[in-house]
Amino acid sequence: MSDIFDPNLEPTREEQIKRLVSSIYETNAIAREAIIGAVKHAMNTIWRHPEFRPQEFLDVIGERGYSLFKAAVVYQNALAATVPGYEKIEIDEEYVINPDGSVTHIIDSSSYSSEEFSSESSEEYSSESSFEFSNESSELSSESSE
Question: What percent helix, strand, coil does the chain show, rounded to 5?
């Protein structure tokens, strides 16, 4: 091993490789945390926002809904397979992916009151809070063609 205090010594080939491998692990850890944060933020924003209902978000997302849902499932499956202890974020909401790729939230209109969407409920909303994301299975199914 080279003397780190001697500016004239070059790191050995093995030391260079170890540094590069270390940078790969660091980059992967940063990317993993970014993906986890993005999935949590998207799911909590769409499904738990204190002011807006899920369908309002889904209407704006439009035909890109299928791609967004598919990406969330793929990311979650990859994280669950590679990150020890990672628990998939699950939602307990029913939805339908339409043939055009848009998503429709299936709700019982009596299950939402205007009080649930008042500013008083905002403390329940957080992009960091967790909840369940599944619609019967961990796989995304759709009648639409890809």
Answer: 55, 10, 35
